[in-house]
Amino acid sequence: MRLRRVLYWSVAVVTGIVVAGYAALSSLQFDDLTTLLQGEVKRATGRDLVIAGPVDLQISFSPSVDLQDIRFANASWGSRAEMATISRLEVEVELLPLLTGDIVVNRLVLVDPDILLETDAEGRGNWEFETAASGAADQGTETAGKDSGGGLPDIQAFAVQGGRLTVKGATPEEQLRVDLTEASGLVPEGGAARSLMVAGRYNDSPFRVEGTFGSLRAVLSGDASPLDLAVEAGGAKGTIKGTAGDLVGAARAKLAVTAQGDSLAALTPLAGTEIPNLGPYKLTSDVNINGNLIDFSGLTAQVGGSDLAGAGTLDLSGKRPVVTADLAAKTLDMADFAPPTESSAPNDQEKAEQSGEKGGRIFSKEPLALDGLAALDGELALSAGELRATPRVILNDVKLSAHLKEGRLQVEPMQAVLAGGTLTGRGSLDARREPAVVDLVLQGEGMDFGELLQAAEISDRVGGPLALDVALSGKGGSAHALASSLDGHVQAVSQDGTIDNALLSFFSAGLSNITGPLFGTADQANLDCIIGRFDIVAGQAKSRALVMDTGTFAIAGRGGIDLEAERVSLTFDTETSEPSLASLAVPFKVIGPMEDPSIVPDAIGAAVNVVGTVGTVAETSGNIVAGAVDTLGGLVGTGPLIGKIGGDQTLCGEALTAIGLAQSGPANSDPANSEVQPAGGAAPGQATEEPSPTGVIEDIGEGLKNLFGN
C-alpha cells in the first residue's frame, strides 16, 4: 500500500477545509461554509464528505476550524460505506504560511477517528481516487514531498483521543487493526525535540511508544531526523535510537535497536503469524534502511542459553522478501527453540492413553507448519562451537549452509564433530509439492559408539568406533505421514570395540553362572563387531543384517519395524563357542509399540532348537548366523534364525558382505585375546564378583525405550 498517497490526500482534505473556511470567513458567508468544504473535498478526491455536526470557526492570525460528525465516503467496491469517520476534528493553522502554500499546524485534535484502508482482489486501494485531478495532484505533491517534504504539514502539536485504524487485504487473513487509547506530540518551549507518546493495541496486543523526534515532516517525507524512542509491545521492551527520514517514501534510517522479553510467543499478534513460545530473549543490532534494502550489522541475540552473532540483510524489492544471514554461535541449545509441550488439547500420547492403546506415538500427526517456507526466500551460513541436539547429544564445530527458494529448503553442506568423529550430510524439504517431500543423507566416521549409546541413555557398557550411513526420503504433511512413507536405509557398523561382561551376562541368559570361563574374568571383552542395517520401503523397515559378535559369543536378530503403525517385531538369538552350553541359551523378542517395546523370551525358538554352534572358535574365528544375515531383508519366522555355515568366514565378515562392505580385517581367532584387562582389574584366572543381571536387564529395557524416543 502506498502510505505516501494516503498522507498526501489527507493533507489535501485538511487544506481544502482550512482554505474553504478562510474564504468563507473573509466574505462572512457562514451559511455556505459546509457547502464550500464539501465542494473542495469532492473536487480534490471525487468522494463525498458529510459534515453532520456543527461547524465552529475562530477568526485570528491563527484561524481554526472545529468540525463534528464527519464522514468521508469509501470506494464504491468497499466493504463499508465510509472510508473514514471522525467524531470531532479541530485544526488550528498559521495564517501567513498558509497564504504561500506552506501548512504549519499549531494544533491538530482528532477524537475517535475510524479509518479503513483496504484493497480489492485486483489490488486496488480505497485511497486511490478516480479523478483526473487526483492523478496530477498526486504526482506533483509526491515529487515535492520527495525533494523537500514540503507537501506535508509541519505539525507542532497533536492529540488523538481514541480511534482505530483497520487495514484489510483481499482475504480475511490479510487484516490488521490498531486501536488507539491516546496519542500526543508536542514541541516544547525553546524548540527542543518534539515529544511523542502513543498507546493502544495492535491486533489486540497492547503497545506503548514514548520518546522524542525531530520533525514529523522530516520523519515522514524529508531528510533524516533524530529519533529516540522507547517501545513496549508484545511483552517486549526495546529502544530505537538514530536518525530516520522519508519513512512513507524511499525510507532512509540509521538506527541502533534493542529488544528483550520473556517469550517470543507474545509477539505473535504483532507478527501476524504464529511464533513459538521461546525465551527469554535479548536482541541488539545496528539497522541501516535504504529504501527496500535493510542491513543488520553487529547483530547479537540470546534465546535462553543460546547465543548468535553476525550480520544479515532483508530485501523487500521483490514479490517475496529475501533474507540473507551469516551467523555464528558459541552455544546453540535446541531446547531453547522448542516450544513447551503443555497444551489444553490432548497430544498424541494422551490420545493413545485415552483410547487404551499401549504406548503413545513417536511421530506426531499434527500438521507441520510449512506455510512460512513460501513466504520468503533466503540464504543462511551458520557456524556453532557447540550445538546441543538433546541434553546428552552434543555436536561440536557445526557448519552448515541453508538455501530457501520458492518454498524449497535445502541444507548443504552440513558438517559437525559428533562423539569424537565426523558427521557430514545434506537435506532438503520441498514444500512446493503436495504433500511436502523430505530427503536426508548422513555419513558418520570414527564416532565413539559407546559415547553415542550413553548419550541416548541406552548403555554405557559398549565402546568402539562407529560408521554411520543414513539415506532417507519421504513425503507428507506431518511427522507421522513422513515416517509412514519413508524409503531408504539406516546402517551402523562398529568393529574392534569392547563390551562389558555384565552386558554379555544378560544376553547369555541361562549362562550367567559360567560367563567367567566363557568370556574371561576381566570387566570387558573384545567386541569384533556390531552391525545393523535396515532397508526401508514405504515405511516398512526390514533388517538386512543385525548381529553382534565377540568371537566367543554372538547375538543375531532379524525382523522389522512398521513405522506407520509404530510397532517393532524383532527376534534375537544367541550362540556360543561351547556346544555343551548351547541348549541353555534362550532366544528373546523385542515386540510391541516403538514408544514402549517389550522384551520377552522366545520359548518356541528354543524348543525347536533354533540355536546352532560352530565347533571351536579358534578354528572359525566366530560364528555364522545364517538367518540373521539376509541380503533380501528376511522377516521373522521365515526359517531357522541361527545355524551353521562352514568354512572360515566370520559372522562379522558375512554381515559386512551382506551390506556391501568388505571386511576391514580378520576377527580375533584366539579366545585368549578377547579379554581386555583394565588398569587395576583382576588377573586372568582370578575370580571376580559376578554383576547382578537384574540391573543390566533394567538398563537394556530402558535403553530400548530410549532408542525409540521415550
3D structure, described in words:
With 710 residues, the chain is α+β, with helices and mostly antiparallel strands. Among the domains are: 1-173, no CATH class; 486-677 and 689-710, no CATH class. Helix content is 19%, strand content 42%. The chain has 15 helices and 34 strands. It has a 6-stranded mixed barrel with strand order 4-5-8-10-9-6. Strand 22 and strand 23 (421-430) form a beta hairpin. Helix 1 packs antiparallel against helix 2 (33-45) and helix 10 (501-507) packs across helix 15. The protein is elongated.
Task: Chart the SSEs and their pairings.
Elements: H1 3-27, H2 33-45, E1 49-51, E2 55-58, E3 64-73, E4 82-93, H3 95-99, E5 104-111, E6 114-118, H4 132-148, E7 154-155, E8 157-161, E9 164-168, E10 175-186, E11 194-202, E12 205-213, H5 216-221, E13 225-233, E14 236-245, E15 252-261, H6 268-271, E16 281-290, E17 293-303, E18 306-315, E19 322-333, H7 348-354, E20 377-388, E21 394-405, E22 408-418, E23 421-430, E24 437-448, H8 449-455, E25 462-463, E26 465-475, H9 479-484, E27 487-500, H10 501-507, H11 515-519, E28 524-537, E29 540-549, E30 553-562, E31 567-576, E32 588-593, E33 598-601, H12 603-607, H13 617-620, H14 651-658, E34 675-676, H15 693-707
Parallel strand pairs: 5-7, 5-8, 6-9, 19-20
Antiparallel strand pairs: 1-3, 2-3, 3-4, 4-5, 4-6, 8-10, 9-10, 10-11, 11-12, 12-13, 13-14, 14-15, 15-16, 16-17, 17-18, 18-19, 20-21, 21-22, 22-23, 23-24, 24-26, 25-27, 26-27, 27-28, 28-29, 28-34, 29-30, 30-31, 31-32, 32-33
Helix pairs in contact: 1-2, 10-15
